[in-house]
Amino acid sequence: MAATAKIQVANLESIKMAIAEKMDSVAFSSWIVPLKFDVSANTLSLIAQNQFSADFIKSVYSNVLQSVADDFNLSLYIGSGTCVQKITTSANDNNEAKIFVPAQSVTTKPAAFDNFIMSEENTFVLSACKKLALGGASFSPLFLYGQTGCGKSLLASCISAESKGRTLMMTGSQFVSEFGRAMSERSVFAFKDFCRNCDTFILDDVHVLSGKHATTEEFLNLLMDLRSTNKNIVLTANAAPGNLSGFDRRIQSLFASGLVADISTPNKNVKKTMLLRNGVGLDVAEMLSGRISGDGHLINGVAKKIKTYTELMNEKVTSDIAEKLLSDTLQKNKTPISMVKSMCEKLGVSYDAICGTGRSRTLVRARQIMMVALKSATKMSLSEIGRVCGDRDHATVLYAVSQIEKARGSDLMLAAEIDQMIEECR
Fold first, then answer.
1. Mean predicted lDDT score pLDDT of the chain
2. Domain containing 283: what range?
């Protein structure tokens, strides 16, 4: 009897090895390893924990599995966990049905949309978030991207708080950690069911999955399953789908298949409002809003520092005190030349070329854009603008402004680029 059992185990191991040789290692680990294997009555039985998994394996891997079964002169049966009691399994089988319980909380502190201070540039993205949260949105996934501190996580939390039904929100780091644990505990199917059992799925900082091929492959399958059942999907990242590194074209394409929305960094008015809401005085908030970068995390840090100083020193923070207290954070006052040099970096041209006599189309266009930005962001006269852009005369600057303003009205990309430069120069 013991000899027969050893032969059966050996046969099962041979079958598993044969399947592994014909499949991608990631797919084998994710879908085949958790199955219950049994050979009886000349039939190879593969039992999944649920019908969804069984149907998926049948539709995707049945050809591979059937060819292996044929090699061993066996017929093939693929079933769900409801059939487990009918199958003889080894004493060391640890694939019994499991309920996945996350090691750490995957819920976040709820936030209302009123907490997101809207600028004109973010009207569209805020409207899209509210539409999805209310239900009935025709776009999924909603892909939000922007620089650190622009409010991606806050908007994701707002959607989570306002959405109807069950909402599951995880960070990219949490997803990687929980999937790795599920793999080690052989509870991958339970983890998949846990993620699918929601009406709205939100993953904050999806770029964290970059380069993690097994996790990314599993996440791709999850997204396709969620889309096929018309679930809402929200993803946030630090770059647009096409600019994310470490992801293949399939998943970049899926990320971009819904609605992709860019979140602008806080402008001067938003920074001022954020500081006022955190108890900073009006005059200090006015001064600081033009001297700190548009990073929401940094703005909140500045507000906390001022509040802490007031509590510890029992002294109101004035503009002079704030200047000294935040000397390591405040940007130095900008000069016209520093503004031009900064714009040169963004436009990909050298400062010497801008100030030189070159007349290439790219160079002239860059020079004209800088002139428009300086005119809108500063109180400099046209002659002064001409001097810092290579000693151009008043008429040259006037012509540049008229040309760019015409193009700006019909070219949204150009308009956005100039608006950003104007904001950075102020």
1. 83
2. 268-325
